[in-house]
Every structure is written in C-alpha cells, then in structure tokens.
Amino acid sequence: MVNESYHKQVVVYLNELVDVLYERNYFGFKESAYDYVDWILDRIESNIAVSPSKTAPEHFSKYGKSLLYQFEKKHPNNMVCVF
What we know:
Number of strands: 3
Distance between the termini: 23 Å
C-alpha cells in the first residue's frame, strides 16, 4: 500500500501502477511491484528539488505547456520520467 500522506488521486494512481506492473508480468511478485513504486517515490522525494530539470519534448505538450521533467534509471533498460 502506498503512503496515505499523498493526495488521494496520487495514492490511487500509484496503487493502480502496482497492479499494472504485476498483472503485465513486469514483476513476478506483487511485493516486488510495491518495492519498485516505493523506489520511484524515494527518488522523487530525495531528488526533485536538487536534480536538474529538462524541457519536455513537444509531443508531451498535450498534457500542459512548458512542462519540465526529470528521469531516474534503476536499470540500464528502464527509465522513469517525472513531469
């Protein structure tokens, strides 16, 4: 279960992400999917204020104007983008 101190919609989204990661066999155990989402949250909380942001590519403009993003890599073939 994702920490309830986040906005309700964030908690719902992250719990759904756990389900998707597990159901699509990205992880063989649901606990591993929770660990991965916890890793994402830890990286966001510890790096969002100190890591440099980049301007998002134009194809993301449908989600908003002048978006910035950061990315985190846990494995060479895996990247998480945070907008």
